[in-house]
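thought: fold this chain, then report.
action: predict
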Amino acid sequence: MRMFTRLRNSNVGYYLYTGLVIAAGAASLVFFYFMVTGFNIGVYEENTLIGSIYVGGLSEEEAEEKVREKVDAWLDDEEVTFEVGYQGYYYTLDRDMMDFEISETMDNVSDGSSNELIVRYSEGARDQITFEINQTQDFMEGLEGEFDLDAMLDDVLLDAAELKEWSRHELSDYIIDEAQLREVVHETILPTPPGVDAAAVFEGIAASLDDETSFTVESDGTLSVIDTFGGELNSSQLNVVGSLLQDLIAPTCMQIVESHYNPSINFDHFTVDDYPYYGRNVRVSPHIDNDFSFQNTCRLPYDFEFFLEGGTLGARIEGLPYLNSVSVEETRIRIPHGTITVDDPDDARGGHDGKIVILTRTVEDIYGAVVDEQEIVFEYYPPVEEAVYPD
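observation:
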């Protein structure tokens, strides 16, 4: 004991003693660590994901087994749908053509993070899918080679890596050269109403659009005439814009959301037979909350451009051609006017027949089947009775 005390008080003894204390402390810490965490050795940390599959707390063998079970169940699930298509026509992808590289995936797992579930298409599978889309799908007629199908399939695989239950990719997002496919979908010119200066309307449109004469309506987007042009145009000018737009979208797949019309004809300028605004008689008045608005339900964005031609205002729609065919039938029903007798010769006036105008739009799919038929415009112009003063 006395020797140990002398050894501890010497320099050598001091360092030896200190080293023993540190070693004992370190050994205690190591022992404590393994007591607490030893059962977690060889398992993945919390928050470890492989694709959408959580494997935290599992061993490598358990995690791989779980991934294989999830993938097999996903491939066997008939409710899972993977589609690619264009303008409402779709091709269903065969998920059995996908190669899930599970062993490679497990070799690259990083603890405590999200990891990619590696899935690929073989070159042969890509070629087969590309062939089937281009050559066996009726909606692709005339569009072969216009889409980057490899990029689309890469995005499909990203959805598969997450084992998504539903995936749909639109080929319109993978067009190689959109300018080559774009065309004028429809164009119209509106006769300028009496008392309206078409050039002034055109200038007001440009002012409303920040010195532009065109705008884009995205798929499912809505345009309001009051919201877009109401700050620069008066009611008479807004009527022209609304009438022009209604006439422009009538033979398209776009839907009129709100429209109003003036049910009287100015017989100082027109007759019931030569009135030029049937079917496109739109009244827009911010003061009484009468707007014209429409929604682009064509699944594609379209550009609208205004132009002046010979002192009249026109507009056109440009974009990708619509696969379905759209036709508009106009029905006009003449309503004979009656005759009344008046006591004052100053009340005598001529009579005018009335009109009912109906625009019916029919949409046929690429096979010629009617998929939609609706009345898009109804206008009633009541007859004006002839007032006769008896001799």
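thought: worth noting. The CA atoms of residues 313 and 368 lie 35 Å apart.
final: tokens above.
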